[in-house]
Amino acid sequence: MEKSLNADQVLTKEKKQTAAKPVAKPFLAMIGMLIGGFVGMLSETSLNIALPSLMAELHVSIGTIQWLVTGYMLVIGIVLPMSSLLSRWFSTRQLILFALGDFIIGAIISAMAPNFAILLVGRMIQGIATGLILPLMFTVATLIFPPYKLGSAMGMIGLVIMFAPAIGPTLAGMILGLLTWHWIFWLFIPFLLVGFYLAFKYLPNVGNVSKPKVDTFSIILSALGFGGLVTSVSLASEAGWASLEVIGTLVVAVLLLAWYIRRQIMSKTPILNFRVFADKQFTVGSLLVMLDFAIILSSMYLLPMFWQNGLAIPVALTGIVMLPGGIVNAVVSAIAGRFSDQVSPKLLITLGYGVTIIGIVILLLARATSPMWYVILGHIVIMVGAPLAMSPSQTFGLSALNQATSGDGSTIMNTFQQIIGAMATAIATSLLAFGQHLSNGGTQVAFTNGFHVGLLFTLIVAVVAFVIALTIKEQKRA
């Protein structure tokens, strides 16, 4: 009898250690997606450094060129919440192969683009791929890895997400120092082809294809609402915040989003489960994550242009001087992730935002004649503070949810990150242009003034986040 019990216990233990969808080589199954995710995140920051060159070559204004960044993130933000629905209509293998193929097509279109319009189309096609790959990496990992290996798998995904944006400006700077901006996209293609081959060979069909009813009207509301929100903010850099065009687009977008959110709350099978915002802890954590992403995206959009237009640094050197901050970002992100389970999240988050504010102030005091080390220092300080607050904010928010709603919470957090990031970039652009117009100095002095006005927005966001962090109470875990 005792032997029988022991056998049952061993069987139960083995069952708990088995993956939901066991595959022979789970790391090989993931590698194609990881390459796609790496290129997708690399693409999110690598083009920032090329924007001044693209403005001159394509003969467009700063308000227009920023669409290459905001348009890319906007598409990610629209596609990402639909990934859960799509994974019930198509196998994850089909979706990943489609996404990698889509990215290759988008990269080719961008690399061959003769004008701004075609380049923007290529960028937005790439955004579709990134919006599919990012959430599916996490979904597939939870299915094909046994529980005792899931931590390593998530760490691998986290490294991809942290490291790619960190080295994006540096790699782009090196490419632009030797070649033209077209090669930023050409060099994506070999990696994507390798990723496609590995995914085709090793990634099995996982997930459950149930083909549920599609709420087409909600999808339309989502696209128009989120799209209108980013568009209205982006238009402000050219038309001004007081223009009827901007105000009208913003009002319509807010109304459509309110309709969309109400429809999701009333639905039994929502695309995004907004009911999770009923939990205050999740709401606070999500808000802190969004504000953190706004700080990172707006500062990383402004800084490469300040190096080139404010300090007159060559584009190849810009990539090199951005590297220390990028490396610090990746290292601190990894460390913060480890400490977020051991140290009070309130301590880490408030410390992170406090350090971020100091870094922004350092850059606000920079001038067109400032030494290189001073601007590098400001960048490094921001890249210590912002990632220090990011991981604990995510953990704080998601730990309030149970297993049934944690997936919804993660999707909402990722979706709004991209939308807020796109809006922050657009706002920084409009303030940069506004600050330049206010200045009576030369080109470098005028751009430096615009840089400071744009950074004031980043500073306000950081101060608001710091104040919210002070309201955090003891963490509860579901």
Automatic annotation (TrEMBL):
Keywords: Cell membrane, Membrane, Transmembrane, Transmembrane helix, Transport. SUPFAM superfamilies: MFS general substrate transporter. The chain crosses the membrane at residues 23-42, 62-83, 95-118, 124-145, 157-177, 183-204, 216-235, 241-261, 282-307, 313-335, 347-366, 372-390, 419-438, 450-472. InterPro entries: EmrB-like (IPR004638), MFS (IPR011701), MFS_dom (IPR020846), MFS_trans_sf (IPR036259). One of its GO terms (cellular component) is plasma membrane. It is a multi-pass membrane protein. This is MFS transporter. The lineage of its organism: Bacteria, Bacillati, Bacillota, Bacilli, Lactobacillales.
